[in-house]
Amino acid sequence: MSLVNISIDDLFFTYPLSDENPFTLKINELKIYDADFISLIGPNGCGKSTLLKIITRLLKPQKGEIKVFDKSLNKISQKELAKYISYVPQTNYSVFPYSVYEIVMMGRFHNLSLMGFETSEDKEIVKSALNEMQVYHLAKKGIKELSGGEAQRVFIARAIAQQSKIILLDEPTSHLDLEHQILIFNKLIELNSKDNKTIITVSHDLNLVANFSRRIVLLKDGMIKLDGDKSVLLNKENIKKYFNVDAEIINNTDDKFNIVINPNI
């Protein structure tokens, strides 16, 4: 039986967007297993990003229990949590003009000595992560000097350098061209298959989901509507039901297929 990395039970969270129309996220049960590759999908405003922020403690739910490796999320120190989970948000802002190298080295903070000095091993890990994301040549540049796509790859490199067991990514390819979208997802596949990393990514690109992830969790109206193997659940009927568009599934195999959206809505 697979090890449960994250378990969520009876979760309730609400944003008071307005008195008449608050947003609520309700999850009765969700288990994320060792070496899962999950894509969180669903229409805008369904709670995908909110769920990641709750798991990373950026938001606090009003109710519910979350466990990470069978430990209560509320009882895990920030330094320990960094060993378990790395997070790449949808948009990264840096108030200070840190260099690319400094940003990626921040992924090693949980591993630094009491004096805060990085070791030769830390430096090699950072160098490797920069190379993997093809941003090593930018190492001395300030993060504010980069394009949105370059900066996104830098923050993914930081998550890789963190070497956590679980990586959460909120729309990691939103600022990237097609070449670098494939680069990112191929790297995630490698981390998942070779290093047994648990990957959870939010994506609106159903073709990336269809060709790279294995499991989908579809949210709508703040609730989980579908949870299971993408090759079974990602079909034209469900796309029509939950996204309100017509689609055809082509080149269907056990693990890869393409989704063609009919533009005549």
From TrEMBL:
<dbReference type="InterPro" id="IPR027417">
    <property type="entry name" value="P-loop_NTPase"/>
</dbReference>
<dbReference type="InterPro" id="IPR003439">
    <property type="entry name" value="ABC_transporter-like_ATP-bd"/>
</dbReference>
<comment type="similarity">
    <text>Belongs to the ABC transporter superfamily.</text>
</comment>
<protein>
    <submittedName>
        <fullName>ABC transporter ATP-binding protein</fullName>
    </submittedName>
</protein>
<keyword id="KW-0067">ATP-binding</keyword>
<feature type="domain" description="ABC transporter">
    <location>
        <begin position="6"/>
        <end position="246"/>
    </location>
</feature>
<keyword id="KW-0547">Nucleotide-binding</keyword>
<keyword id="KW-0813">Transport</keyword>
<dbReference type="InterPro" id="IPR050153">
    <property type="entry name" value="Metal_Ion_Import_ABC"/>
</dbReference>
<dbReference type="Pfam" id="PF00005">
    <property type="entry name" value="ABC_tran"/>
</dbReference>
<dbReference type="InterPro" id="IPR017871">
    <property type="entry name" value="ABC_transporter-like_CS"/>
</dbReference>
<dbReference type="InterPro" id="IPR003593">
    <property type="entry name" value="AAA+_ATPase"/>
</dbReference>
<dbReference type="GO" id="GO:0016887">
    <property type="term" value="F:ATP hydrolysis activity"/>
</dbReference>
<dbReference type="GO" id="GO:0005524">
    <property type="term" value="F:ATP binding"/>
</dbReference>
